[in-house]
């Protein structure tokens, strides 16, 4: 199976589904920048995953962060592992530091988190090498790929709510000394308790994620609960951010808008093209209505090309709009365009494909909205996006009489 491409045009869940339904055996590699992750499959199920050139996903670091091994014991184990050539997990068992079940459970969690992390990637080249087996894999699992897809998709939906509450990346966090509670006692989950122990007034959210023993998503979810329940607050900005060079705020938010709506329009376009084709005259006429001004720089407007539009040219075009109305006019145009595309799918292709389009669009927005959360909140980008969804939902209710 010669499967390769970029997850900007073929989403990561779609790639997993192809491999699962095809019951494929081999290795899927996904690369973005300096990051490369590999997932091994057997008969469509996931049996192993690894991060190439990454310290964060290695077993030793995971055990150390979880407090399950001392630094001294880990150094001893690594030395012995290098001397004998045996896998680190096997070496830890040989040293009677862990039993087989404990190492297996930790490696299983490590594999799952590597895969779940890929759900947040908005782009990256992928290639599937059929029949290739993982080399030097210390532990193999047998994970249902379809269950992984369901959980990864659920995490994306949950992340949309979490990111609305999480503080900006440059804010130091501390535990409140005075707070109001709705009851006489506070009940914390184990994850929340672990994260609370890391909050000391000297760490930002990024620092806490790096120090966390439970993985990025569980950490953000626990932090979200702590903030919502009024147990954690900001303690000022990190000093390195205060002395950083001044940034062009408008250019930053325009870049977030660019990525956000590019991702959305590409997905709506793919839903239509997969069913009616690029040569359908009705669709061509519909798309031609968006080929003007700023809108020409979004992939959904060009049915003849999958190549990414130019951000620099888009920026020049946007800045032709008067300063006083620039952001309002841009967001209004894009919100209306997304609404019209979803409405077109509903009216011409039916409720089933409409729901599919809305689902794909929602999956694509998590990373763009997470890029600069403080600016996303300031310019209400998430609210503009959901206004488009709500408008199309109202149209569906009017036409069908059901929600």
Q: Can you walk through the features of this model?
A:
The structure is a single chain. The chain has 18 helices and eight strands. It has 403 residues and is α+β, with helices and mostly antiparallel strands. The chain folds into three domains: 4-148, no CATH class; 166-242, Arc Repressor Mutant, subunit A, CATH 1.10.10; 249-400, no CATH class. The strands form two sheets. The chain has a five-stranded antiparallel sheet with strand order 1-5-2-3-4, covered by helices on one side. Helix 6 packs parallel to helix 9 (216-228).
Task: Briefly say what this structure is.
This protein has 403 residues and is of the alpha+beta class.
Low-confidence stretches: 241-247, 303-307
- Our measurement of the CA-to-CA distance between the termini, rounded to an integer number of angstroms, reads 40 Å
Q: Strand count, sense and closure of the main sheet?
A: 5 strands, antiparallel
Side by side, the strands of the main sheet go 1-5-2-3-4
- How confident overall, as mean pLDDT? 79
CA gyration radius, whole angstroms: 24 Å
Question: Beta-strand percentage?
Answer: 5-15%
User: Considering DSSP H and I runs of 4 or more, what fraction of the residues is helical?
Assistant: 55-70%
Structural class: alpha+beta
* Broad shape: globular
- Provide the number of structural domains: 3
Multimer state: single chain
Topology order in helix (H) and strand (E) letters:
EHEEEHHHHEHEHEHHEHHHHHHHHH
Per DSSP, the total helix count is: 18
How many beta-strand segments?
A: 8
